[in-house]
## 1
Amino acid sequence: MLLTPRLAYQREFFGEGLCNFGPACALFRREEFVSIGGFPELGSHSDTLFWLRIFRRVNVLLVYGDLYWYRIHAAQEMTSVRAAYDGAAVEWKWLDALNSTDCPLLPDECERARRNAVGRILRSIVRDLRRGHPQLAWFRIRHARLSWREWLRYAGRPHVALDAGTPRTSDGNPVINAVLRIPRP
């Protein structure tokens, strides 16, 4: 499925997200990769930073899930305490991407996306507290770079739709590739 920058941002901020996948799930032109400075090497959450930059600028072709493999194992870096702190330190980049002058979303979509981004951060804070990690929760709050007014303005539960960012026909129905359609009896 080919996603424009706007569709990619809609999928990231209004749907299940895209930035949580590794670079094997999408294709784009090499020139674009080079033009944004390549892949940042900033730890286990470099994927998120990379996707937020590339999605703003270029069309991206999503690869079908059965064409790539994402290995999950017990010693995975993403499960470490350091990775949790690294992730908390870059969560504000979601809001930074929405405040960028080249953000592909419309102004009312940006407002909704901010609510969802802050809602995700709040959900992580609650999860940290439930798991007995108050220091990590406090770290998230400090590194979100939000004023107390912004916390109050955007606090709430994220509203997501599974088909967010899916191309649509002129009558509003999602475009589904024939390979993915479930045959009707």
Note: Residues 4 and 60 are 7 Å apart (CA to CA).
## 2
Amino acid sequence: MNKLKMTMASLLLVAATGNAQAEYLKAVKPLDGYACMDLNLTEAQLRDNSVTVPILTGPSSDAPWGGNASAIVIARAPLHVVNGYAEILKLDGQPGWIAANKLKPYASVSNPNAHCTPSMMSNGRPGFG
């Protein structure tokens, strides 16, 4: 993963634990039917806190807001798109929907051999292994 993505993924794991102390998280099993996806944003947009990609609670522009997406998301694979929105899995285990045009296949610019595996983590929540 490139440095920005690794930093964001690390922060997400700390946030997901609810504990900034040294709780050791590890992937315990892959999440079948899901794949890592990148947000379809430029590096500058990813660094700009005013640029957000909303996660909605349903596949509609009038669905309630359910949070903002991180740089890497866990998407249903194959991609499940309804009304232009792709189904994702939030890090709290709840489903969500993101505009499908805001997603692109996962790739690391700094390490072309890097891979990302959506996994169930040792704390019982989804994450990246």
Note: The chain has one domain: 3-128.
